[in-house]
Amino acid sequence: QVQLVESGGGLVQAGGSLRLSCAASGLTFSSYTMGWFRQAPGKEREFVATIGWRGRNSYYADSVKGRFIISRDNAKNTVYLQMNSLKPEDTAVYYCAADLRGLGSIKVGDYDYWGQGTQVTVSS
């Protein structure tokens, strides 16, 4: 049974930082491209960042580029999202997702497995 478990969310002031983690089990983690998405209340789930299975290639949404960093540790079956210079508009539930086909896609439908999400709230 595949499980993706996010952690590290919380309440932070604007300008602050948080580091999200996503621990994977039940899959060959190093074979999967991993992504982070987020969903704010009343909005659709949107792409944040993705990282290739080797950790060499990454891609970011324009809204987070230069502020967020995605990384992974295949030995720990974990993907991370370091979030710096947080803004109130970053407030959302953040989800990690796994893509076996390695597309590095920004589309929700291209990911095979999802975590349950972790809430990030940025106060102004």
Task: Tell me what you see in this structure.
The strands form 2 sheets. Strands 2, 4, 5, 6, 9, 10 and 11 form a 7-stranded mixed beta sheet that branches. It contains no helices and 11 strands. The protein has 124 residues and is mainly beta. Helix content is 0%, strand content 49%. The protein is globular.
Low-confidence sequence ranges: none
Largest sheet descriptor = 7 strands, mixed
Q: Number of DSSP strands?
A: 11
* Broad shape: globular
Number of helices: 0
Q: Helix proportion of residues, in percent?
A: under 10%
C-alpha-based Rg, rounded: 13 Å
Write the H/E string, N to C.
EEEEEEEEEEE
Structural class category: mainly beta
User: How many angstroms does the end-to-end distance come to?
Assistant: 40 Å
Q: What integer is the average pLDDT?
A: 96
Roughly what fraction of the amino acids lie in strands? over 45%
